Amino acid sequence: MIRASSQGLSFDSAAVSYAAHRPSYPSALLDAVEELAGLSLAGARVADVGAGTGLGTRGLVERGARVVGVEPGEGMAAQFRAGLPGVPLVRGDGNALPLVSSSLDVVTYAQSWHWTDPRRSVSEAWRVLRAGGALAVWWNDSDGSVPWVAAQDLRLRRLFGGGEGAYDPAARFRRLPDELPFVRRQVRWSREVSLDAHLANLATYSDFLVLGREGTDRFLAKEREILAGVFPEGAVQEDYVVSLAVAVR
């Protein structure tokens, strides 16, 4: 049975745009995964849970890992298969992994752990990992130490009722279960995209998908005006912080 939250499954409606505009992950992140897990991804048996369109999966495959994707959403799964036709994909989620016990070296959650119920997903991850295998979870967030990013984050929080305080990407670590021996690390990186691509990326956020077209278009139109003044050449440097946590079984 495929289980996922309704907000998590909202990504299905924007799967094509998600695949086209969401950022991937830097090579330094996977270097850190290997270091903290104490193993090489080359040849490792990996399940990428909540794989979405395969943004995280692709990097794992490029490292030589033998990856199976796990994804509950039909639209996201379709984009995964289109972009990574040679990588096996099963429908399901982290609360009830459709995988054999003790069969994996690594279980990864790229931007998807928060859609699970940790009371179930923790035991499921431990069940499918071999002894000495590793659970790696990470989130990619805008780097609020950059002034224009902090200003945009404040506008987003005001729109969605998130309060006035600056967002700290390290808050992601509070979603981790205390009973597992997680080691934490943050990796900073950036990419340059067009203003159109930046706004298209924002539009794939789950809050906007739930908000609806009218409210989303209204916000993005104002955001275009603001950012055109910050980036008059039309190229936006997006700065990110990846918050990574790895626990070895």
Highlighted features:
about 250 residues, alpha/beta, Rossmann fold, 10 helices, 7 strands, about 25% strand, globular, disordered N terminus
What does this structure look like?
The chain is of the alpha/beta class and 249 residues long. The protein has a domain at 6-143 and 167-190 and 241-248: 3-Layer(aba) Sandwich (Rossmann fold), CATH 3.40.50. The protein is 39% helix and 24% strand. It has helices at residues 6-9, 15-21, 27-37, 55-62, 74-83, 118-128, 147-160, 195-202, 206-211, 213-230, and strands at 45-49, 66-71, 89-91, 104-110, 129-142, 183-194, 235-248. A 7-stranded mixed β-sheet has the order 3-2-1-4-5-7-6. The protein is globular and about 55 Å long. The two termini are 26 Å apart.
How much strand content do the residues show? 15-25%
CATH superfamily caption of the domain at 6-143 and 167-190 and 241-248: Vaccinia Virus protein VP39
SSE string: HHHEHEHEEHEHEHHHE
SS elements, strand count: 7
Name of the level-1 CATH class of the domain at 6-143 and 167-190 and 241-248: Alpha Beta
Which stretches are low in confidence, meaning pLDDT under 50 for 5 or more residues running?
1-9
- In terms of structural class, how would the helical and strand content be classed? alpha/beta
- The side-by-side strand order for the widest beta sheet comes to 3-2-1-4-5-7-6
Give the CATH topology of the domain at 6-143 and 167-190 and 241-248. Answer: Rossmann fold
What about the largest sheet?
7 strands, mixed
The whole-angstrom Rg is: 18 Å
